[in-house]
Each structure stands twice: as C-alpha cells, then as structure tokens.
Amino acid sequence: MLNKKTFTNNSKEFKNKLIYWIAKYPYVCYLDSNEYYNGSIYKNYELFVGISSKANHFIEGHGGLNYLNKFLNCEWAFGFICYDLKNELEHLSSDNIDKVEMPLVHFFHPELLFEMKDREVVIHYRNNYSEHDIDVVFNEINNTLPSANENSKPLIQQRVSKDDYISTVKKIKQRIALGDIYEMNYCMEFFIEDFECNPYLMYVKLNAASPMPFSCFYRMEDHYLMCASPERFLMKKGNKIISQPIKGTFRRDLLNQGHDKILKQQLFNDPKEKVENVMIVDLVRNDLSRTADKGTVKVEELYGIYSFPQVHQMISTITSNAKEDIDFVELIKTTFPMGSMTGAPKIGAMQLIEDYEKTKRGLYSGSVGYITPDGDFDFNVVIRSILYNARNKYLSFMVGSAITFDSIPEKEYEECLLKAKAIMGILS
Asked: How far apart are CA 356 and CA 155, in angstroms?
C-alpha cells in the first residue's frame, strides 16, 4: 500500500513540467487522457504516471507469463505487452525484421505514482520516502524547464513502397476471396537509422499535434514509446470488462465545419467501414464470452462516431461481466492481441500477417496500461506511435488499415498516410 499526499495545482502546467522531470528515471509509464471523455462512466484518469529508479520489474522472455500474477502481488503495476506475445499464446511465429528490440512483456512496480484530477495532483509514494521528500519532489517538478528544441530533419525511409503495398493488398484480397479470412489488418513500417533524439520532447510534440484519450510515454531503460492512441484495448472495473475497438477512419476538414460534419456522417453511412467494424465487434464478443458469466456479453454502442484532431473514427463498445476469480493473465490469454489489429478469424489473420508484412510489430499493435492493487486495469492499443531504441539509434513507426473484400488498394494506402500524418509532421 502506497502513502499519498495531495497538492493543488494547475494541471496543464504541471503536466508540461512533469514529462521533463521524469527523464532521470529508467522506468516510466506516463498515461495522459488529454481530458477526453470527461463525465464518461469509462473515464479513469486525467493523468496517471508511474516511475521507478530500480529494476523492480518483470520481463517475459519465453513461456513465463504465468509468473506475472505472482509479480503483481496485489500492488500497483505499470507495463506493456508486445503484439508478438501471440507466439506464446498460439502456435505462431515472427521472423521479420526487428530493430526496436522490445521484450515481449514488461511490468514494474512504481516507487512514485502521480494522479491528476480536478486541479489536484496526488503523489503516491513508498515508505522509503518521507512527506518532506514528496514536498521536495513537487517543488522540483514545478521548477523544471522544458528541453531545448531540436532542428534536425532526418531521412524517413519506407519499408514497403507504394507499388509493393498495392500489390500486397491485392494478394490479401485474393486470400479473402478464397475464404481463408474475412478481414486482415495490414501494416507497414517507416524508419530512421543512425538517429539521435530527445524522446521526451518528441512525445510533447506528438501529443500537442495529436492529443488522444490513450496517449502515453513509456521508457524501459534505452527503449522508448511515444504514443498518441485513440483506442482502448481492455478495461476492468470490478467484474465488468470493457473493450472499445476502432474500425473505420475518415479524414477531417478543420477549415470547413460544414464539410467536416458531412465527412462525419459519410463515415457513419459507409457500408465498407460498417462491415469492418461489425466483424471486429463479433470477434470481441467471442473473446469476452470465454471469461464471461453466461448472457452478460453486450454491445453497448455500435458504430459510434468520435472526432479527433486528425480523423473521425468509428468506435464500438462491448462489455461483459467476468466470472469470479478471473485474473489479468487469464483475460490477456483469451483476448490478446486485440481483434482490431489482427482481423478475422484472428488466428488465420495473424498467420497471413506474418506472410505479408515485412517488419516484426513488437510493441506496435501491443498494449500499455496499469493494474491496481484490487486487480482493476486499463490498457490501450499501441497505434499512432513512435518507437525508439536509443542504444542502436533506430526510430520506427508503423501504420495500417483493415483489408476486406471491398477494399480499394489505393484508398487503403491513402488511409495509412493519413494515419501517419501527425508523426511525419513532428519528425520533419
């Protein structure tokens, strides 16, 4: 159990300083909702940050996921799960290029935990800190200055050319026509080699350009994630499980409010986007049913349209009541990876993803979040994100879209570039 102390503060100013103050800690999970969903029954935090200076953490290599429950031990924990954990959950493999080199799973117990709500900052701390120490920490943060701007314009390379992308989408559509799958999420990588950057400043820029409800910054020693995700993977409140997959993307027209409303309505009425969405809703319903009390799986919202700075998105909400004594690991085993990043049927889609993609996904398409001492949790979907390995100076980001029988390859390519727009902007 952590102690806590509450301070009154301007939350936005404090957030801007906190992201730079945490730079001295090797283990960081910084979760920012950017004030979305205020008043929503599924809103959990405005800002939630866990940090640790010690290697009090869990790293999963092969076959060790069952030990995670022992590590959690009814304590606060922050962590991530890489997409390629699928290989431990199913008879699958991943042999594509991987220069980011994240472990499959990483969790740590925080020594300091920052919670922000209603113009208050609550600092939770372990017994090795005194109340005076926390006063010092709070003052240090308020006196922290932002990092200097960076002016470099690196060469962004594309792992898959436009022609190769279009050719691959046509091949995937052939597999759909043969009945191998119904839908597949196909992704491609952009990367920069021999690149040095300030990850904290890069996250600030990304979050300013594209503030999202599941934004996060994660550091595990020399490995960094800068994430502007709009999507929740899985949440647990009591015995209630909530999943909110996104399938359906239209651009925005911020210069013409009338046209922007038309685009929003067009997304809601688009038959292809609805087909994509309902396929994933059915997949999530099936996943949740494996741990749910009979008859409790419900679709609370279908085809909800939500607007973000760059795009309109189609989001559905599926819930269930979990059976008694279902823990975090069991829920992950029965739902991961999220269907919005695979396709349907899930295993068949994941097999084809390995055949057609060129890059190992790693933390992209994975999930970041936290677990409470009571076993509640909230985890995002890692998309619209930058991954950086400071040790080998390699930066990577991936984008993708859902391919169905009705997909037009050129339009799928344009959707990928639209999703990459915010990241391209801050890098160049």
From this structure: 25
Determine the 3-state secondary structure of 97 from DSSP: strand
* pLDDT at position 183: 94
Q: Which residues contact 359 (CB under 8 A, 6 or more apart)?
A: 96, 97, 98, 159, 187, 188, 189, 396, 398
Instruction: Give the residue numbers marked as catalytic.
Output: 231, 247
Name the helix (H) or strand (E) containing 203: helix 199-209
CA–CA dist 341, 81 (Å, integer): 14
d(CA 322, CA 40): 21
* Long-range Cβ contacts of 86-91 (<8 Å, 24+ apart): 86/336, 86/337, 86/350, 88/60, 88/62, 88/63, 89/333, 89/336, 90/347, 90/350
What pLDDT digit, counting tens, does each position of 243-264 carry? 999 999 899 999 999 999 999 9
Helix (H, G, I), strand (E, B) or coil at 163: helix
Question: Parallel, antiparallel, or unpaired for β 77-81 and 105-108?
Answer: antiparallel
Backbone torsions φ then ψ of 191, nearest 5 degrees: -150, 160
Q: How many CB atoms lie within 10 A of CB 70?
A: 8
Q: Which CATH number fits domain 3-427: 3.40.50.10540, 1.20.1560.10, 3.40.190.10, 3.60.120.10?
A: 3.60.120.10
* 26-46 CB burial, b ≥16 within 10 A, e <16: ebbbbbbbbebeeeeebebeb
- Give the dihedral of Cα atoms 327, 329, 331, 335; nearest 10 deg: 180
Q: Enumerate the β-bridge partners of residue 157.
A: 191
In the block, tokens 């060129």 appear at 358
Within 79-144, residue ranges assigned H as helices are: 86-89, 131-142
**What confidence tier does 159 reach under pLDDT thresholds 50, 70, 90?**
very high
Task: From 110, 80, 95, select the one nearest 382 (Cα to Cα).
Answer: 80
Q: What is the pTM of this model?
A: 0.95
307 vs 248: CA distance, rounded Å: 12
**DSSP letters of 320-381?**
EEBPTT--HHHHHHHHPSPGGGTEESHHHHHHHHHHH-SB--TTTTSEEEEE-TTS-EEEE-
